[in-house]
Specification:
Order of helices and strands of chain B: EEEHEEEHHHEHEHEEHEHEEHEH
Largest interface: A-B, 26 and 31 residues
Mean pLDDT of chain A: 85
Shape of chain A: globular
Shape of chain B: elongated
Largest sheet of chain B: 6 strands, mixed
Number of strands of chain A: 2
CATH architecture of the largest domain in chain B: 3-Layer(aba) Sandwich
Distance between the termini of chain A: 23 Å
CATH superfamily of the largest domain in chain B: P-loop containing nucleotide triphosphate hydrolases
Number of helices of chain A: 10
Low-confidence stretches of chain B: none
Radius of gyration of chain A: 20 Å
Helix content of chain A: over 70%
Structural class of chain A: mainly alpha
Strand content of chain B: 25-35%
Oligomer: heterodimer
CATH topology of the largest domain in chain B: Rossmann fold
Chain lengths: ~260, ~300
């Protein structure tokens, strides 16, 4: 299993375009977006937007990018590429005789989650660096940067919600890629689901939480974390996310273990 | 045919496989049973659609049979029992963004007791191109790398689908010698499918001929050839002899071909000579595997 996991990481490391656009670009774009907004305000008003910055809380908010619908498009392309490559190059026939199918899929899954986590951690580092530069530019040294007690719990909570949401996305994309043996057929439904959830979010307002879509229930959990919304909704949201994860992972595993690889 | 022996490397029992459902379904394998003894180069022959590739894919675990089962060295086929096999199924498949060395490194890490990557690269003649991406390889180089990938895990048996495909004549000779060497020196079992009948005749000890997913013939190559041998005679009045011998005889090459068992030849000669037939020339004609293959598949068709 360990060897399979490292083999997947090695394959990804040899596909820099997939690695960057599929796993690292979304969180880095979130940092760039924040930087652009701050830069715009600075150019218009000559003042920095931020006063004191809690580094952990600022990073925790950044993890909300896991629910971004455009982000889901990029993530889905990267995730689907990892599975689709085996169909495209017919390389399942190189791997399947050497390891069990469940191990092969698990190795891909873990490699993808690792890359997604690395992307978030890189964004966290970049965000910290931007905050540091802004603090120095305001002539306050490091005094504007802080880590408040209690922020660590919010940070850990936001990271867990983001990783759970991304794990659900990974399972869904894997399932669709396996069933369709196509990247388009996997990416487009996931993107439409994300866009649909965003539209519902705008039009339905608070009642949106009644709809058990992954990004809506993840938002409910984040609302509790950052805005103090009712914990019951957050718990329900986490339970629904977990149910999505179990269902999509189980269905993907079942589909792959029974799949005929006669014409990849 | 397909006798079960304790020392079989591969045993396939009553394998059935149909692609598609209902009337549109295509029966690829129809109750096929076959045993591949250890330490032998075994050839799998058959026309297109005979079920060779389906059979090899079932052995490799790429598809599941509808019924029947496969045993590898006495254990049910699975990821664990396949560890002792090297498999090259259909055209070699690789990641175009990895080099040959990276492929072998990766597969070596998946094996319990891998060979040295450099040794395998040298053995298949790719040492100098080891750090080149596979996307730049010719078909022949990919075929060599495919063989390298099967050897890296130090297997006890190989399953090779058209192993000389895409190789130049020199490469074909090298590959044949490598396969023979693996069987003779390393005691490896090799199951190979090929369309090149002369190749199978040269390197295989036994063959199985498939037709419509069933076994049309199976046996040692020498036995199959003997079984289909014919006796040829040049006599004074061939027409008279032809009418006397009936269905089993036909004219050809300036004489008469007689289909018969080789052991009956002395009796036939004796009866002809005592019957006053003047024999100018006589010989036992061994067929090549191609004619055996064609006659077996035609017989099955009829």
């Amino acid at each position: 299993m360990r060897a399979l996991f490292f083999a997947e990481l090695q394959k990804l490391s040899r596909q820099p375009a997939v690695l960057f656009w599929g796993f690292l670009s979304v969180p880095l774009m979130a940092v760039l977006f924040r930087l652009s907004l701050d830069g715009l305000v600075y150019l218009r008003t000559g003042q920095m937007t931020r006063g004191e910055v809690d580094l952990l809380l600022s990073s925790a908010r950044l993890f909300g990018v896991s629910g971004n619908s455009v982000g889901h498009l990029f993530y889905a392309i990267g995730l689907s590429s990892v599975v689709f490559a085996e169909y495209r190059f017919a390389t399942w026939r190189l791997l399947v005789p050497r390891a069990s199918r469940s191990q092969l899929l698990a190795a891909k899954y873990l490699a993808c989650l690792t890359c997604l986590a690395i992307g978030l951690l890189l964004a966290l580092t970049a965000n910290g660096f931007v905050s540091l530069v802004q603090s120095l530019m305001q002539g306050e040294g490091l005094s504007l940067l802080s880590i408040r007690p209690g922020s660590l719990a919010v940070f850990a909570g936001a990271l867990s919600i983001a990783m759970l949401e991304l794990a659900v996305l990974t399972s869904l994309v894997f399932l669709l890629t396996i069933l369709s043996r196509s990247m388009f057929a996997a990416v487009i439904p996931v993107f439409l689901l994300a866009i649909g959830a965003s539209i519902l979010q705008v039009y339905l307002g608070p009642t949106r939480e009644l709809i058990p879509l992954p990004s809506l229930v993840a938002d409910a959990a984040r609302d509790w974390l950052f805005s103090g919304a009712a914990p019951e909704r957050a718990l329900m949201g986490l339970a629904i996310l977990t149910a999505w994860l179990v269902a999509a992972t189980g269905a993907g595993l079942l589909a792959f273990t029974r799949q005929q690889l006669s014409a990849e | 045919m397909g006798d079960a022996r304790a020392d079989d490397a591969i045993r396939m029992i009553d394998i059935r496989k149909t692609f598609g459902r209902g009337g549109a379904g295509v029966r690829a394998l129809d109750g096929l049973s076959l045993s591949i003894p250890r330490g032998m180069v075994y050839g799998l022959l058959g026309p297109n659609g005979a079920g060779k590739s389906t059979l090899l894919r079932i052995i490799a675990g790429l598809i599941r049979p509808d019924s029947g089962h496969v045993e590898l060295f006495g254990a049910p086929a699975g990821p664990l029992s396949r560890q002792s096999f090297g498999m090259l199924i259909e055209a070699p498949a690789f990641y175009p963004f990895l080099t040959a060395r990276e492929h072998l490194d990766m597969l070596a890490r998946l094996s319990a007791a891998p060979l040295s990557v450099d040794a395998v690269l040298r053995r298949v003649g790719l040492f100098d191109a080891a750090n080149k991406k596979v996307s730049g390889y010719s078909l022949g180089m990919k075929q060599r790398l495919g063989i390298g990938c099967t050897l890296i895990g130090q297997p006890q048996a190989l399953v090779l689908d058209e192993p000389t495909n895409g190789l130049d004549p020199e490469g074909i000779l090298e590959m044949r010698s490598l396969i023979r060497d693996l069987a003779v020196r390393d005691g490896m079992t090799v199951l190979l499918s090929s369309h090149m009948l002369d190749e199978v005749e040269r390197i295989c000890h036994r063959v199985a001929i498939l037709r419509h997913g069933q076994l049309a013939a199976e046996g040692a190559v020498a036995d199959l050839l003997d079984r289909k041998g014919r006796f040829w005679l040049k006599v004074d009045h061939p027409d008279q002899l032809l009418s006397r011998l009936g269905e089993g005889a036909e004219p050809g090459e300036g004489g008469i071909f007689i289909t018969m068992e080789q052991s009956n030849v002395p009796d036939l000669i004796h009866s002809l000579v005592t019957g006053g037939v003047r024999i100018h020339e006589a010989k036992w004609v061994k067929p090549d595997l191609e004619s055996v293959f064609l006659s077996q598949t035609r017989e099955m068709e009829e």
